[in-house]
Write a sequence for this structure.
């Protein structure tokens, strides 16, 4: 009896509850579909995420190895001097995208190099802000790897945040689906059942009462007992 | 090579003969490599008399310890030699480094951190900072003043921090060649020539490795040295194997063959850089037992520089938990 809502067992209430049940069922179905779809997207994102993370980690390990070697043959001031003034600036902008009504971030980045005169473009564009005479070749390798890792790292950040937001949304949706499935819908069905029973019970009580009244009225009119 | 008969340095040379005994031997470096912790490795340095007595150095301070050690060597030379100007060519490297730091800091709106400045230098770092701020180049040696003005102009035009380094690197080597030629020592000229050649070769290989256009090489190459620019341009067009065979008549043939093999295996120039240092040590060793002249002093100063490089390799390796074989592989030949 605890699953029954505290309502008056009337026909009016029952119609209302039936309407609510219908809405709840529809909502349940929709939410379940949403959850399944989210799950599907989430798994895709997670798979991509894993791939990216492995790539990024491999690149960063390599970059660190090269940097370590470079660092071992260059003194701290020389390394600092080489890297103190970056040549390239990176502009990162964040936009949002809608994924199953979840707002996820989308990073886009643009690199900018200082404007060079045409005459000097023969030097070729690169990412190295230092001269080559006093620095070690492994620093170039390290820089190159890091430069190639940047887009992947941004993508990784994006997909990791997306996965996190999706997971939260899935959790929320699942809680709602469960609440509908295991609490609200049984409650409504049971209450409706209870009201139906109650109404039928009343009906039967009524009939019995009517039959009794009829008996009493016949008795009064025809005096069966006296005639016996 | 003609032996020097210059007797002015006899006192310093004899002092250095004693100190040389305390240089890190291969066995001591081996002890550092085998040390369980960076602290133990540092202790070997303490035992070898590194740094100033009475100061406690922690592992985090090793970089300061190393720069103080280099300064100590320079100070010893300065105290005992008759003409200190003769050693300028060894330290202008630090001046040009400081110049780069100051200019880059100014153009990128950063404060110059003392830790980034190197000493010993001709112009003390602080003074250089002030001179540059006031754009007062008259206090600097002429080649430095010219190259500083040139790099400021180039940067304002191109807004590219790399040009500062490119111009100053060239100026540095040019200045060094000029000063060393003035000494009239066959050994020093040969040494500086080798430095220029090896630096040019290193830059050439690096430019090739990162696939730069030919025009870029022009902005890197240092004038002077044993080869002309045409030679490098020709090398630049060749494949790695042909580079070595094109140098068959030069001193660097063996070095190049070996390092290009290493380069093909690992894709890194670490092997080349190591062999360059080994080559220089061999050059230094030729005057190790000279009694007269400036040569053994120059050799000792540079040998100490290379020793410090070795120590840095070990310390960085130890601190970062590099395997022993990996450290050993990168170690340079020792002078003693």
């Amino acid at each position: 009896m605890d699953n029954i809502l505290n309502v008056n067992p009337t026909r009016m209430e029952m119609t209302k509850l039936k309407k609510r049940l219908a809405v709840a069922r529809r909502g349940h179905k929709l939410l379940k579909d949403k959850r399944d779809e989210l799950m599907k997207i989430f798994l895709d994102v997670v798979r991509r995420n894993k791939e990216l993370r492995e790539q990024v980690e491999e690149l960063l390990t390599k970059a660190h190895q090269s940097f370590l070697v470079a660092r071992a043959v260059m003194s701290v001031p020389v390394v600092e001097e080489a890297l103190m003034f970056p040549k390239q600036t990176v502009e990162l902008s964040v936009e949002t995208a809608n994924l199953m009504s979840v707002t996820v971030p989308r990073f886009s980045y643009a690199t900018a190099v200082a404007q060079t005169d045409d005459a000097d473009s023969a030097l070729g564009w690169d990412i190295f802000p230092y001269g080559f005479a006093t620095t070690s070749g492994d620093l170039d390798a390290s820089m190159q790897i890091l430069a190639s890792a940047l887009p992947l790292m941004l993508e990784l950040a994006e997909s990791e945040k997306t996965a996190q937001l999706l997971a939260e949304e899935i959790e929320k949706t699942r809680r709602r689906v469960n609440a509908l499935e295991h609490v609200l819908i049984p409650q409504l069905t049971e209450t409706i059942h209870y009201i139906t029973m109650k109404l039928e019970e009343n009906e039967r009580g009524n009939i019995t009462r009517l039959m009794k009244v009829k008996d009493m009225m016949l008795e009064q009119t025809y005096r069966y007992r006296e005639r016996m | 090579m003609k032996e020097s008969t210059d007797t002015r340095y006899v006192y310093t040379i004899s002092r250095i003969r004693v100190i040389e005994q305390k240089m890190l031997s291969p066995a001591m470096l081996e002890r550092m490599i085998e040390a369980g912790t960076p602290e133990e490795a540092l202790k070997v340095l303490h035992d070898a008399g590194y740094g100033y007595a009475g100061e406690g150095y922690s592992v985090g301070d090793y970089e300061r310890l190393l720069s103080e050690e280099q300064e100590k060597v320079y100070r010893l030379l300065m105290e005992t030699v008759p003409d200190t100007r003769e050693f300028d060519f060894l330290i202008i490297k630090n001046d040009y480094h400081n110049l780069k730091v100051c200019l880059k800091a100014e153009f990128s709106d950063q404060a110059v951190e003392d830790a980034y400045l190197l000493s010993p230098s001709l112009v003390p770092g602080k003074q250089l900072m002030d001179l540059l701020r006031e754009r007062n180049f008259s206090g600097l040696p002429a080649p430095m003043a010219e190259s500083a003005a040139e790099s400021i102009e180039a940067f304002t035009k191109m807004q590219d921090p790399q040009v500062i380094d490119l111009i100053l690197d060239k100026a540095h080597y040019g200045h060094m060649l000029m000063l060393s030629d003035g000494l009239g020592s066959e050994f020093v000229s040969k040494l500086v020539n080798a430095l220029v050649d090896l630096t040019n070769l290193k830059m050439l290989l690096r430019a090739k490795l990162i696939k730069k256009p030919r025009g870029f090489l022009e902005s890197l190459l240092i004038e002077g040295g044993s080869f002309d620019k045409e030679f490098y341009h020709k090398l630049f067009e060749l494949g790695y194997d042909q580079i070595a065979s094109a140098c068959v008549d030069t001193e660097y043939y063996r070095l190049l063959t070996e390092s290009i093999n290493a380069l093909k295996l690992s894709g890194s120039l670490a092997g080349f850089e190591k062999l360059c240092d080994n080559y220089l040590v061999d050059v230094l060793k030729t005057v190790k037992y000279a009694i007269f002249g400036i040569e053994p002093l120059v050799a000792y100063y540079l040998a100490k520089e290379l020793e410090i490089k070795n120590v840095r390799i070990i310390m960085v390796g130890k601190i970062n938990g590099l395997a022993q074989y990996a450290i050993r592989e990168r170690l340079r030949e020792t002078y003693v």
The mean pLDDT of chain B is 90.
